[in-house]
Design goal:
Blueprint: H1 2-17, E1 26-31, E2 39-41, E3 51-53, E4 56-60, E5 66-68, E6 81-85
Parallel strand pairs: 1-4, 1-6, 2-5
Antiparallel strand pairs: 3-4
């Protein structure tokens, strides 16, 4: 009986702990040669929202490494990509 309870409890924990939330993927464009931390403030009313291209959000990081967006932070799983971008694009 104890073994059955353990199995049922283990299965319940496994199923509730494995739920994934998916979100829109994000392309982060970083100035070429930038090193250091990048900081992003979300939900800033005076800032621009994410641009969206090909079903992906695009966030352009300025040379300061500090970006603001009026878009909300989206928790969850996505295949984000990070690109270094030269001054000529």
């Amino acid at each position: 009986m104890t073994s059955l309870r353990f199995r049922v409890l283990s299965l319940a924990l496994l199923l509730t702990g494995c739920s994934l939330t998916f979100r829109t993927p994000l392309d982060v464009l970083i100035p070429d040669g930038y090193t250091g931390w990048i900081r992003v403030e979300y939900g800033v009313a005076s800032a621009q929202p994410y641009a969206t291209e090909n079903g992906r959000h695009v966030l352009k990081i300025p040379p300061s490494g500090f970006a603001r967006t009026s878009s909300s932070f989206e928790p969850g799983y996505a295949a984000d990509t990070y690109y270094y971008v030269t001054s000529d694009g």
